[in-house]
Design a protein that fits this description.
By secondary structure, the chain is α/β, with parallel strands linked by helices. The protein contains 18 helices and 18 strands.
Length: 475
């Protein structure tokens, strides 16, 4: 049995701000079928401690970046967890990343260095006979693990770093090299130094044995200046150890045939009709002569939703409607509130059950992202027969078959892609969407294709298991 410790800042359903949590929460069950025993190491935020059943401390640390800490074993939602209890780092209200002023907690570098420090200790020492063969670290919050667990063949676990979003580097000023317990001799361009600052992400990119991204196209994009967020050179340097492994979704949690959140469970496109009627009633929308488009998203420029604001009148002119659920940048939240009307329904906030009903009731789901490492929303759309309209980037390219003339001719299209990712191109995609929606035979075929497309974790779990076995030390 291969043993893997997953090191992450969030894990669904225990604590979640985005898709990272969904991936971290889904991997243990998916990998169990491949003979991998995975435990997840999480910070002890208040919401984590409330959600888990603790079974006792398994490791003590007298000074974890400013105070005592311990690791406790815990379970929640079928997950085997290890939780870092360090009140001075994690016992805070509100967001796990942001203070009351909406900005990063000033000590975020130490907070997630603490997570990495304990992961490295577990990797070197084990816990009561449980010794991980591989440490699987996620994003910058887990990326300092290689610095605390230097490469010593046969004496440390293999280390994998998965890049879910290259936009966040985990930067800190050089004055914190000592307080973060980093080797000062590695603060240079060939180490973790990045334009005069400490970059946790760069440390992980250089120190991990293998790098993965959450889609093949995103892996290629990170090698180029326009996609690498300043670290494209590092990615090219390490290209031989980079793999693009596509994310999947939990097909039990997202199953329209058994979903308790939807008005009428269904297993074919024809079953969407009562859900569409129920969604319109819930959101205050009347019948309309065009497609009901839905958005479930963070409201940020990365997600391209500022472009949607600009082309929304054109969709409405074609008889289309919009139902949106999300939160994010204050100006964008207000702009969508201002756009609300007889054909536009807006809910600001997070509502898991409503997101399921939007997927079940919508005709199309809009994901006009400017960059998208993988994206899960379009996968939910495919699963629910809700046609994705996506920007031509990252995992959106890898998961949606564009309704090109060739794809339509052979009957394989599952959605619409638009390129370049601009407002004009999105306008054209929404116009195509309306045309296709009115051709009921073509639309029904696309829906059936979408619902039949594999979107689960099985292929990706096999790929991760192979990678783990390649780098695990011989014990």
């Amino acid at each position: 049995m291969m043993r893997v410790l997953s090191v992450a800042s969030e894990c669904s359903p225990v604590v979640k701000t985005g898709g990272l949590a969904d991936v971290v929460g889904a991997l243990p069950a998916a990998l169990a079928a491949e003979g991998v025993e995975m435990r997840v190491l999480l910070p002890g935020y208040p919401q984590v401690l409330r959600a888990v059943d603790r079974t006792g401390p398994v490791m003590e640390e007298w000074d974890l970046f400013g105070g005592p800490a311990r690791v406790v074993s815990a379970q929640a939602a079928g997950l085997d967890l290890l939780v870092v209890e360090a009140p001075h780092l994690y016992d805070r209200p509100g967001s796990i990343y942001l203070g009351p002023d909406g900005h990063d907690w000033p000590d975020n570098p130490e907070r997630f260095a603490g997570l990495c420090w304990m992961a490295a200790r577990i990797g070197r020492e084990g816990l009561g006979g449980w010794q991980p063969d591989v440490l699987h670290c996620h994003d910058w919050q887990g990326a300092l693990v290689p610095e605390y667990c230097p490469r010593t063949p046969g004496e440390r676990p293999g280390i994998v770093l998965t890049i879910h979003n290259m936009a966040f580097h985990g930067l800190a000023p050089p004055s914190r090299v000592g307080s973060l317990r980093l080797d000062p001799w590695r603060f240079h361009a060939e180490g973790y130094e990045y334009w005069g600052q400490i970059s946790a992400l760069k440390a992980g990119l250089l120190g991990a044995d293998r790098l993965t991204t959450v889609s093949p196209t995103y892996a290629a994009e990170l090698m180029r200046p326009e996609g690498g967020m300043g670290l494209d050179g590092v990615m090219r340097r390490r290209r031989e150890v980079v793999s693009g492994i596509l994310n999947g979704i939990d097909e039990d949690a997202w199953n329209p045939a058994t979903d308790p959140a939807v008005a009428a469970p269904y297993d074919s496109p024809e079953g969407k009709a009562p859900n569409k009627a129920a969604l319109r009633a819930e959101m205050g929308l009347a019948d309309a002569p065009g497609p009901l488009c839905v958005v479930v998203s963070r409201l940020t420029s990365q997600k391209g939703l500022d472009m949607l604001l600009g082309v929304l009148p054109a969709l409405l002119e074609r008889g289309g409607q919009l139902a949106l659920l999300g939160s994010g940048e204050a100006w964008m939240e207000q702009a969508f509130r201002d756009a609300a009307g007889p054909s536009v329904a807006v809910r600001i906030g997070y509502d898991e059950a409503l997101s399921h009903r939007l997927l079940a009731g919508g005709d199309a789901i809009l994901v006009p992202s400017r960059f998208e490492p993988c994206g899960l929303t379009q996968l939910y759309g495919l699963r629910y027969g809700t046609i994705p309209v996506v920007g031509f980037t990252g995992g959106l390219v890898d998961t949606v078959i564009n309704a090109s003339p060739a794809a339509l001719a052979v009957g394989v299209a599952t959605g619409l892609q638009f390129h370049p990712v601009t407002a004009d191109a999105l306008h054209g995609a929404l116009s195509r969407l309306c045309d296709l929606w009115h051709d009921r035979d073509v639309w029904l075929r696309m829906q059936r294709n979408a619902m039949a497309q594999p979107v689960g974790w099985a292929p990706s779990a096999k790929a991760y298991a192979r990678l783990y076995r390649d780098i695990a030390p011989v014990r």
